[in-house]
Amino acid sequence: MNAPLKTDALPEWRLDDLYAGRDDPRIEVDLAAAKAANDELGALEGRLVAARAEPARLGEMLDRGIKLYEDAVNRLWSVGAYASLAASVARDDPAWSKFEADFRARSAQIAAESLFFTLEINQLEDGELEAALAARPTAARWRPWLRRVRLSRPHELSAELERLLVDRGPAVANWSRLFDETLAKLVTKVGAEHLTLPEALNRLSDPEPARRRKAAEGLAKALAERVPVIALCLNTLAFEKQVEDRWRRYPSPAASRHLANEVDADAVDALEAAVVEAYPRVSHRYYALKARRIRLDHGGLQRVHRVGVDLVRQVA
Known about the structure:
Layout: H1 25-42, H2 47-50, H3 55-88, H4 94-112, H5 115-121, H6 126-135, H7 143-151, H8 159-184, E1 187-190, E2 193-196, H9 197-203, H10 209-225, H11 227-248, H12 255-261, H13 265-277, H14 279-293, H15 298-315
Antiparallel strand pairs: 1-2
């Protein structure tokens, strides 16, 4: 049982190692550099396939092109990480929401111009790539990245459809933003108090059972009032993924994640089965120990957890 968090001395989340603020001039410098790298990379469009019979020339273009691609992606991801992390702790601040949304739009526009690169790489045959890497030894350092790119080869769409998905990405991300902002504005009435979501969650670790119970009941009520919005966000994103997975011919909802993680689906299924099989030995024992630790009878503990289960069912 964790001790309740002391909210009077919370640590500050500092992102100075990335940027000093929304107006840090380094942000524009990095975005401009990302666009410049992408523009230079654009000069290779159509040339990779055209050089497929010339290993030395193809190897040289791959080496140079991947370095430009890496530079552009690293700079975009640096700004993207800052925008996402900073906005995540200021969901009630419209200025940060606008900053994050504006970055997503700019990032998608920049990234779309280099979309051809991985698509064109995947038009090459394995033997052609191997010959190019052999002819240009310095390009062999990119072999792990090329392997990952090739994994998506059977699931790629036409260039036009891939561009469509990139262009609509910022709009789809707004569903996640709506979900986050809805929870950030949530206020839970617990007795005479009005608690934010983090405060209510922290109260669930209070040493006093009565305070925990009141917090759980108040939180369940507050979340239930927002089920329509939360369910709409989750179900819309789930349907959007279902459609894309069908077009990309993924056999299951988790297939794209397995591909990204470079793990075998059978191994994941075996792991899941082992965990489920261990439920009686692990989770039931855990909750029995927890009930004894917080001086709560099994029935009371089950009632507290049933609140969360009922909410999940409503959202699903």
